[in-house]
Amino acid sequence: MKSTPAVRDKKQLTQQLIKQLPTDAQISHSQACSTWWHNLRQQGGMRLTTVGYQSFKLLDLEKYEFCVDPLCVTSKLIISMDRKLQMPYYIEIKKKIPVKVVFFGSQEAVMANLYGDLKKFIDNYNP
């Protein structure tokens, strides 16, 4: 499995990942940015859209799944994740209920698992 490059630099990360896509799946940088990321601002968070998550899966990047308590995933927590997490992540939602967070950064995934609670991890995480 491949690992993800660059930390919290969406522009560079997006450019590097586009180059790794199969030729028939390559898209422009602006198209990738607008379809892969929830927050389009350059300094915005690293949360992936479903299209972004599927693209990352296509690239066979290392990922780490963390099951969550659906009641703890609030808009306040998502905003905190957006501000603090340095590597891409995806919130998997089934039937409008968040069931897990998929991390594309091993350090953040390990720390979340050590805490065992996503909210506690985010509250105490200072990158």
Structural commentary:
With 127 residues, the protein is of the alpha+beta class. It has one domain. It contains 6 helices and 3 strands. A 3-stranded antiparallel beta sheet has the order 1-3-2. Helix 5 (106-115) packs across helix 6 (118-124). It is globular, with a radius of gyration of 14 Å. The two termini are 25 Å apart. The mean pLDDT is 90.
Q: Gist?
A:
The chain is α+β, with helices and mostly antiparallel strands and 127 residues long. It is built from six helices and three strands, in the order αααβαββαα.
What is the CA–CA distance across the termini? 25 Å
Q: How much helix is in the residues?
A: 40-55%
> What's the structural domain tally?
1
- N-to-C series of helices and strands: HHHEHEEHH
Q: What's the Cα radius of gyration?
A: 14 Å
Structural class category? alpha+beta
Going across the biggest sheet, name each strand in turn: 1-3-2
What portion of residues belong to β-strands? 5-15%
- Indicate the overall shape: globular
Largest sheet: 3 strands, antiparallel
H/I helix tally: 6
Please provide the count of β strands: 3
Low-confidence stretches: none
Mean pLDDT: 90
